[in-house]
Amino acid sequence: MEENIKLEYEPRNGWTCLDENTLKELEAFCEDYKRFLDDAKTERESTEVLVNTAKEAGFSDLNDYLCAKKKALPGTKLYAVNRGKSCAFIIIGKNDPVLGMNMLGAHIDAPRLDFKPKPIYEDSGYALAKTHYYGGIKKYQWVATPLALHGVVFLEGGRKVSVRIGEDESDPVLYITDLLPHLAQDQMVKNGYSLIGAEQLNVTLASRPVLDFEQCDKDGACCSNSDGCCEGEKKEEKSDKSVKKAVLKLLYDKYGICEKDFFRAEFEIVPAAKAKDVGIDRALVGAYAQDDRVCAYTGFRSLLDLKEIPEKTAVVYLSDKEEIGSVGNTGARSCWLENLCLELVSNYDPSYGMLELRRAMTATKFLSADVTAAFDPNFPEVSDKLNVAFASNGISFNKYTGSHGKSGASDASPEFISYVIDTLEKENIPWQLTEMGKVDIGGGGTIAQFMADLGMEVLDCGVPVLSMHSPFEVTSKADVYWTYRAYMAFIKA
Ligand code: MN
Ligand code: MN
Question: How far is the CA of 442 from the centre of ligand 2 (A)?
Fold first, then answer.
């Protein structure tokens, strides 16, 4: 037997494989990453921020090439946007795309609270907004914490207005109340699912009625009444001074939005907290929506920072609606990515069509870049310690996801896993081969299965996350950095 054969496998710690320069690079990368998390709290904002960054780095709109019937030569950097909520970044490789492309796909939607179509109402002196939660959340985590409102509304004629409240230092924040422990005897015996009900996730928007100084001057100290209205006032006048009316007036004055416009809007309530270093040694990043913006950002940067022209065309695809099953025309189950690939194939050779697209898809390698659960010492019972991902042990590969008997999983082939491991080991990148949680206690899915439907080789991999789907998720900076390096090694291979 050869002397240097290591019989046993122990994953390496991502911190201990760093040299001094790489540590500096890691720290700079994570500062950029945190800034991205603060700038991009919705799928629309993620698309906008990344497209702008790409444009600055010399990426052009794919549509410009298609409209001008201009061939994208090797090294051409392109982007494409799907309805403002999903996007792809491409570097054209030297090879014929029919020989296969290197693709990576992450998602940029995250669990949150959406406004209902008619959200605003008044109750007991408060203007509140009704929400409908999006994705898998623990509802009790969204109360008694500062929240922000992000969204867009398309006014008459399609004029777009963006709203962002709760992010600037000087901004107010929004809030959902929780019950004080003193009166929570009944609440505290409920289970986690019903501790806070979905219809209790009502956001406090405002509490000050319309202030009518002229009316007050005429009638003296009439506004000192508890309901803020004058004695003997007519009913219509009373409702004119309501808190709901006051908040609608504020929104109209600032954004030109009326109540009916909420129906042509997409308003999302997200945590107002900024990304922060976690731990005295600053080794972890805490922030909202690291599932899956950590893979989206590392994937994007792996393409952006690529120095050489790759042999194969490299594509980083960022999808929407993953958290609700990848449905809809911006989700990974839509034909948008397939159409994009068809454009790329026929741009390479105008005589190419569907047959060549099918061949290209079958020959394509795809990393389904999504997070996994990191081992949590506070909840050891949910993990098989032999197979769970540990934070700081590098990028985590999930051969399969799904639940119970691998239901809903795209089970990666050992041929492909072998290829990916070899690609990473050439660059000495730490990795771990894992699965999420013990068998039969839950599970989850990614976009892997939908990409596999197109005939590609697919493997799930990404950064292990603590407190996943909570308003403040935690990752290891070592994993963020090594995942970026792993994606780059794959993309250029
Ligand atoms: Mn995810
Ligand atoms: Mn998720």
Answer: 13
